[in-house]
Amino acid sequence: MIATFTLFAVTINTIPLLIERGADYGLAAISLGLVGFGQVAGRFRYPSLEQHSSTRSRTVVLSASGPSACG
User: Fold this and answer.
1) Is the confidence at residue 50, as pLDDT, over 80?
2) Residue 66 in contact with residue 6, Cβ under 8 Å?
3) Where are the domains of the chain?
4) Residue 67's pLDDT band (cuts 50, 70, 90)
5) Residue ranges of region Disordered (predicted)?
6) Is the pTM of this model over 0.70?
7) What mean pLDDT comes out for the span 51-64?
8) What is the Cα–Cα distance from 23 to 59, expressed in whole angstroms?
9) Measured in whole angstroms, how far is the alpha carbon of residue 59 from the centre of its chain?
10) Residues 6+ away with beta carbon under 8 Å from 3
11) Do the Cβ atoms of 66 and 7 come closer than 8 Å?
12) E-assigned strand segments in 9-54
């Protein structure tokens, strides 16, 4: 549940974060589009991952690929 909240928080705050760091609106919009593309691609890829891996290994891979709380 916390990982889901974190992933959505990163998605929602992508544009303000990039603009605050000096990026223009076009680059911020492109980065948000890439996040959306990654989410859609992940939804198509997950069933294959589910068939070829165990629950434990998926949990480790998906947790490691999410945003880090350290920073």
Assistant:
1) yes
2) yes
3) 1-65
4) low
5) 52-71
6) no
7) 86
8) 34
9) 15
10) 62, 63, 66
11) yes
12) none
10 dihedral zone (left: phi>0; alpha: psi -120 to 50; beta): alpha
**CB 6, CB 67: distance < 8 Å:** yes
Query: Cβ contacts of residue 47 below 8 Å, gap of 6+?
Result: none
Supply 43's token pair.
């939804």
More confident of the two residues 3 and 33:
33
Identify the pLDDT of residue 68.
55
φ, ψ at 14 (rounded to 5°): -60, -50
The pair of structure tokens assigned to 12 is: 């929602």
- What 43-48 contacts at long range (C-beta under 8 Å, 24+ apart), as own/partner pairs, is none
- How is residue 49 written in tokens? 């991952």
Cα torsion angle, 70, 36, 11, 46, sign? negative
